[in-house]
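Self-study notes.
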Amino acid sequence: MIEGLLGRKIGMTLVFSSDGTVMPVTIVEAGPCFVTQIRTRERDGYEAVQIGFGVARSLSRAEAGHLRTANVSGMRYLRELRATDLQDVSLGQRIDASVFSAGEFVDVIGSSKGKGFAGVVKRHHFRGGPRTHGQSDRERAPGSSGSTTTPGRVFKGTRRAGQMGAAKTTVQNLQVVQADAERNLLLLRGAVPGARNGLLLVRRARKARS
């Protein structure tokens, strides 16, 4: 069984539940994806499935040859997913939104929106320095970053100003409100990472709620 599939973020909207409650949902174009490679324990040491999604503008000869073995062409994105059982998986197999069902919980992995270079107040929610007693230039400053003689340096990982966003982000345990296999659409309750048209990996939740 394949654990998930690739998709594209379309946008957000509101839907009504059966009891009349309004829910914010994200619409994801989930597939169709195609199996482009199968990893077996005997040959590769583990079991996984490589899937392809989207239409590529151009491919190198190596990429085109790799896809030709699976009898598919023009895949823009390739990703490898964990699989629990490979007996029912074959090269070129189509995967669509029907792998999920309403009420199921999924994890969504995407690239967050890039915010550029940001200071510590915006990036890490620092409070900043005092606004009085001559501290006119300390309002959004980070303050001290470490000790003096010992250790005489700033530890790695210290929160400071820098690039914000544009990083791999995972949102866990989003509920599938609707899975439309005919139109390859998933309606997920809540927000997912990234901007519109961004690439998403939707997989079964690793820490699913009971």
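Second protein, same conventions, sequence then structure:
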Amino acid sequence: MSPPVLGVILAGGLARRMGGGDKALLPLGAGTLLDAVIERARPQVRALLLNANGDPARFRHFGLEVVADPVPGFPGPLAGVLAGMEAAARRDPPLPWVASLAADTPFFPIDLVGRLLAAVEREGAELACAASGGRTHPVFGLWPTRLAVELRRALVEEGLRKIDAWTARYRLAVVDWPADPFDPFFNVNTPEELQEAARLLAGG
């Protein structure tokens, strides 16, 4: 059985470097960036939803529940994490963990969630995030649902926006992946990077 984790794909950004719009809907291979992310995410989690703002109808054909940022003003990925936590708490039964995944990163590891869960248990940590090539990737994180109230308070009352500033308050496990032959956390921010993603996909 899949682990008790709700996956939340973060697609709430403004995609300024791509000219605006929904970066997740850009074409990649036979589908879109979002199709590639869903394909990798679905086997790793108990349930999967999409964090996106605006009219959810544009994502209808993906078959995912769409949840908007619960905090106004496009406060960044932490708002998407909070959306996931609050959705996980509403499930019956509630899911104790949320895994956050970026909608513009089509090649993230197929063992991501399993290794993050194992690291939390092994290290007695409260949170976990991915790393590669000497850099952490906090958008690819594992978050306990029980911290939803604390995260909402930090976003609303403190105006906190940086993921690193919030994870610094807790015991964080960092799980490293090799960046060779390419970085699995390669993400698409520009038209050139979308072309590179297509080339990587074509090359298997």
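Instructor comment on the second fold: The radius of gyration is 16 Å.
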